[in-house]
């Protein structure tokens, strides 16, 4: 009984902390505005890289832009402002931020090309997996259109966040000239790739068992 009570208290405390943070966001700021801000922030990251900004500047801006990922969805649920537009903007901002970070690291040769290729292949599942489902329809003689709706699973969401911050830590490690941060980032990249592999395995398992018709 004591353990259960403690667990409930911990959960309530976390929920109370999240609510307190959400309540501090001005009412005129909407979740969709935060998502749009993240998209604009991605363009800022790209512009800074083109302008030859320092690694520390990139690290700070990337941290601010990436942190907004936690705010828009949480704020939408807290205020009951979940919309179809928000459901589109939130993952779009995530993808653009991820691609912007990859581009910066590729430009500065801070990550091996084979890692970039693996990550891009994983991220392209939103294209090749629906095509795979449509190919099955073709073999079965069924209409190809409209394409199946493939919702991201939780492992894929974890992978996106994990890899995004791992890439940011690489920039921070370079900015601080801290080799241990660079090694820590690489550890997290491999963890993120592992999460991505699990996500793709689940997609393929569901596909083999008749999902995504």
Extended strand count: 0
Domain count: the total is 2
CATH architecture of the largest domain: Up-down Bundle
* CATH topology group of the largest domain: Four Helix Bundle (Hemerythrin (Met), subunit A)
- The secondary structure category is mainly alpha
Number of helices: 8
Show unreliable segments.
none
Largest sheet: none
Mean pLDDT: 84
CATH class descriptor of the largest domain: Mainly Alpha
Order of helices and strands: HHHHHHHH
Beta fraction of the residues?
A: under 5%
List the helices and strands and how they pair.
Blueprint (H helix, E strand, L loop, with lengths): L1 H22 L7 H20 L4 H25 L4 H24 L5 H11 L1 H15 L14 H23 L2 H30 L5
Helix pairs in contact: 2-3, 2-4, 3-4, 3-7, 4-7, 7-8
Question: How would you sum up this structure, described in words?
Answer:
The protein starts with a helix and ends in a 5-residue tail after the last helix. With 213 residues, the protein is mostly helical. The mean pLDDT is 84. The protein has 2 domains: 1-109, Up-down Bundle (Four Helix Bundle (Hemerythrin (Met), subunit A)); 112-213. The longest helix has 30 residues, at 179-208. Helices cover 80% and strands 0% of the residues. It is built from 8 helices and no strands.
